Amino acid sequence: MSPLHFVGEALRTALSQVPLGLVRAVFVAIPLLLMVWVLRLPSSQTTHPDGRGRWDSDLKLWAWLALGLQVLVYCLF
Description:
Helices cover 73% and strands 0% of the residues. It is built from 4 helices and no strands. Helix 2 packs antiparallel against helix 4.
C-alpha cells in the first residue's frame, strides 16, 4: 500500500463520522444564505444598464426562484 492509501483511509474514516442530517442542513443552508444575499443586492447591479424597466429585467427574481427550486429539491430528496 502506498502512503496515499493511509491518507485516503484517514479521510474516509473522518468524513464517515459526520452525521448525514448535518450534511443535509449545510446543503440547504448555503442556497438559503445566497437567497438572502441576492435579495440584498441593489437593483442597479441586477438590471440591464439601458434601464428598459420591464418586470422581468431584474435578475434578482430569477436568481431567487432558481435558488428556491434548489432548496425545494434538497429538502424533498
